[in-house]
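Appendix B, example 12.
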Amino acid sequence: MTYDLDYYERMLRLNAQTGEQISKVRWEWINEINPRIVLDYGSGCGFFRTYRPADITVYSYDVGPYPQTGIELTIYDVVCFWDVLEHLPDFKPLEPVLALSRYVALSLPIKPQDTLWNDWKHFKPGEHLHYWTGETVQEFFQKYGFKLMKSGYPECPPRQDIKSFLFKKL
C-alpha cells in the first residue's frame, strides 16, 4: 500500500461524511483524561485535528503528504493512534513517541471470533500488516509501561469491528 496524495484524497472523499462524527466520538472517548496537548500519530487527512475542541492543541504526524505539524514537543498528554497500528511495518519508530506521552488512545479492527478471515471486512493483506486481539494490544502497551484504562466499541456504528483503547503510563 502506498500512502500518497491519491490515497489521502480518496480517504477524504470516502470518509468526509463520517469524519466529523467519528472525531467527536474519539474526543468523548478521551475526555475523562482532560487532554490539552495531543499528538495525532498517523493523522491521515486530519479529521481528528480539524474537529478538536477549541481549547485543545493537536499536533499531527503522518508518513503521507497531507499537511501536518510534526512531532515538536517533548511531552504530550495523549498520543493517539487512530487506525494506525495495523498499517505499520515496524513498531521500533514508536518507542521514542511512546516515551513522550502520559496516555495512549487508539482504535483498530478486531475480528469477531465467529467471522472467517476471508469474510471479514477488515481483512486487507498488503494494507493491514498486523491483526490484533484485545489481549495482544494490552501486551504490546504493557511492554512500554502502559496500563489499560478502558476498551470498547464507541465508533460502532457507524463503523464495524473497530475497538478503541485508552492506556495510562504507569
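The domain at 5-169 is CATH 3.40.50.150 (Rossmann fold). DSSP finds four helices and six strands in the chain.
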